[in-house]
Amino acid sequence: MDISLIIKIAGVGLLVAVATQVLSKTGRDEQATFVTVAGILVVLMLLVNQIKELFDLITSVFGM
Question: What is the reported pTM?
Answer without folding.
Answer: 0.78
